[in-house]
Amino acid sequence: MAQGVLVFAEVAEGGLTALAREMLGAGRRLADALGEPLMTAVLGSGVQEAAQEAVYHGADSVYVADAPALGHYETLPYSAVMAQIAEQTTPNILLIGMGDTGRELGPRLAFRLRTGLASDCVELTINPQTKVMEATRPVSGGNAMATVVIEHTRPQMATVRGKTMEPAARDTSRQGTIVPVTVQLEASPAAVTLVERVKAEAAGVRLEDAEIVISGGRGLKGPDDFHAVLSPCAKVLGAAVGASRAAVDEGWVPSPMQVGLTGKIVSPKLYVACAISGAAQHMAGCGYSKTIVAVNRDPDAPIYQRANIGVVGDYKRVIPAFQKKCEELLK
Amino acid sequence: MDIIVTLKQVPDPEAPKESFRIDDTAMKILNPANVDPVINGFDENAIEAALQMREAVGGKVVAISMGEEGATRALKQALAMGVDEGVLLHDAAFANADATSTAYVLAEAIKKIGTYQLILCGRQASDWDQAQVPSGIAEFLGLPSVTAVQKVEVQGDMFRVQRLLEDGYEVLDVRPPCLVTISNEANKPRYPTLKGIMAAGKKKIPVWNTAELGVDPAHVGNAGARTKVTRLYIPRFEGKCEFIEGETPEEMGEKLALRLRELKII
């Protein structure tokens, strides 16, 4: 019988990613609600330390597939190894974070395991009567929410949106078992080969790490004000600059700056949205910010339904004055 | 080059927000009143990528869609954009499918078409935002797949693709036949020309059902679904926005800074 919660813990540069720690947090809570163990899968090359970290972050057992062939993510080998671990551990629930790896691995693995998947979930609970996982996810770009269950097949799989789950706390007194997994990959030439990774030029603070984000939308009417108005203000505040999908689609700013459903999910302490109407698509990316400030000339813009603080006015005049005052205050 | 594109007809996401409707009993996202459904936006990017590839290296583009009879509309539009053939996969038994049973029917249709080097899909559908069906098709067909791609081109006997990452992209060479999902960064879909619309009007769109596809009725529609939606609702936000007052935008800007300071946010 399927038992336990298995979490795929993504590794970057030898350590657990923030998303992996969030998955361990979510997995631990589900496991405790069921009274079942938390298992973790760690895949990569040189990942022994990350495996130990998974124990410190709440895993009862960690299945480690450490092989040079797993040094960077590729769908087919990762799906094969994860399927092997899932078949060995027969989990009741399997969670994967919705990062670069998880968004591709999750669906492929679900089909490989012939089970169902709730994708891009923001809330996971156990039904107290049925003990089935109820996974809630935004649909239609966040215009609606759907709760999904996987009734008959196991594991019940979910990919989980970043920044929506409380990360597991690190406790070095925690004990857990580390189980090495023998990796057997096909010897045939790979169907997919990595040529290169190209990092977008990140000017200033990384969006996903920033405590403050200042974003521009369609109302900026061109690329210029991202540099002329938003960036100087961001510099004063130590903030990152983001954009709505409209600004990216128009080619004003590169896609890694996009905040939204198909862009980045951010949850800074302060999110300042300039000339952004507040489409559900965009709010999916910034709705978890602690404080949202909206600056828009249209008092009926939907963003005011989600904003904590609103300024009805032209960002071209509001932001420079705001910046100047901030400079004074932060001196 | 033989390319297959998968399409989904969806409620128009550009429709006014107030017109967004759901059926919270049947667990369906409804089409807004008086707004025609459209081709899923990311699928239009996939069509455009297919047409650009055909223009570069020659070949044929076939579009397939599983849906109600009304989905012929989306296929007609694809034909008008320049796709060579369209096939509708329709059967009453296909209703209430989830990602699994949808991917199964599409994969069986692709098997029936037989000849292809590349399958292009949109990265996700704007109604349910699952991004599962393409990976499912690839898994059913045993093909390599790459998702959320901003560029695809022929490179020798491989496809060279750029897969979007949070901090940039990676360049991958993929062996055909394979499946690639296209993101909105890839291109701007063309509008159908008048000539295209006229030509599309004359083309017949065959409809393949359970019998024609030879699919197992136990694996289609609701019968083949592995996930079930138990609740569908429109989230309500409290709308407790505190507005900063002021005579001029400059004054409001300054007051905003002071207020954020007061709240210890900056």
**Coarse morphology of chain B:** globular
Computed structural class of chain B: alpha/beta
Number of domains of chain B: 2
Q: Would you identify the CATH architecture of the largest domain in chain A? A: 3-Layer(aba) Sandwich
Compute the average pLDDT of chain A.
Answer: 94
Report, as a whole number of angstroms, the end-to-end distance of chain A: 62 Å
In the predicted model, the low-confidence regions of chain A spanning at least 5 consecutive residues are: none
CATH superfamily of the largest domain in chain B: HUPs
Strand content bin of chain A: 25-35%
Tell me the fraction of residues in β-strands of chain B, as a range: 25-35%
CATH class of the largest domain in chain B: Alpha Beta
Strand order of the largest sheet of chain B: 11-10-9-12-8-1-6-7-13
How many helices of chain A? The count is 8
User: What is the H/E string of chain B?
Assistant: EEEEEHEHEHEHEEEEHEHEEH
How many separate helices of chain B? Answer: 7
